[in-house]
Amino acid sequence: xxxxxxxxxxxxxxxxxxxxxxxxxxxxxxxxxxxxxxxxxxxxxxxxxxxxxxxxxxxxxxxxxxxxxxxxxxxxxxxxxxxxxxxxxxxxxxxxxxxxxxxxxxxxxxxxxxxxxxxxxxxxxxxxxxxxxxxxxxxxxxxxxxxxxxxxxxxxxxxxxxxxxxxxxxxxxxxxxxxxxxxxxxxxxxxxxxxxxxxxxxxxxxxxxxxxxxxxxxxxxxxxxxxxxxxxxxxxxxxxxxxxxxxxxxxxxxxxxxxxxxxxxxxxxxxxxxxxxxxxxxxxxxxxxxxxxxxxxxxxxxxxxxxxxxxxxxxxxxxxxxxxxxxxxxxxxxxxxxxxxxxxxxxxxxxxxxxxxxxxxxxxxxx
Length: 367
Ligand SMILES: [Zn+2]
Ligand SMILES: [Zn+2]
Prior knowledge:
The protein is mainly alpha-helical. The longest helix is centred in the middle third of the chain and has 20 residues, at 227-246.
């Protein structure tokens, strides 16, 4: 078992203007720490953020994506820590490291989407019940990463909904008398009591490889790649797997058979990778990893033998093909190289499946 990747250390805050400011736990997300600090003072997270940023409805935004330097500075001076210690709890530096293009306001590649509306969130947060049982319960950075679906320490599936009322995890809506992040905001169920299910080693291969890539060891097949190129290649392959499962032509079926890759058991919903539920993402990325672990020369031979078209491995919009996969791309049947939005190629998904997936997200936000 590879060592779990860590994002930032615990920070004890002894110079805060607030008497019960909670320490920033190892790898904790900004929102999680703000919620715990608010509840420790017997006030709502909304009240605390209104004190820190009086003219900004902070909790209506996805705060964990990062703060402007002014806002981070306001928080750091009240909490008694440095601006960088605040920034370390946010996702923007990770998104920049893995993104193939500058990150904008829309969905960030590989960062789970919260789908915020006012204080409500449709999805996008995960937790390990056993980690919640062990110490002060808090939400970790890894719980927002699309390639994380198993706890590296306990090897159990993460949960992204309350097992009791099925609402999405929305700690920003907790209120006193709750004193920590350990319960469902809606029904009060303690997540530490959730039933757990072990993951097997093969479920974790993509997750481990992606974490290792962020540590600087980016390998797909036998090919060394940059971090951004590795994640771009992974994005192209997962798009291929989803399209292949929806439109299994004779040549695509033959390719999957040759590579030992299975069609997805669940019909793709049409939602972007970053909006999929835990198990759906895990299934997709397990098959993605099977393709990625092949030597690039073998992949090129298989694609060439079955005349795979260039459009079957679409580049995300605005991205350029990395030189590290040029051998594979040259093996594809010529034709205009098509740039597609993420999730594109899924236009053939029946409208009912798409509508149902969106309705489920809406229900889990609006309860
Ligand atoms: Zn755990
Ligand atoms: Zn609940």
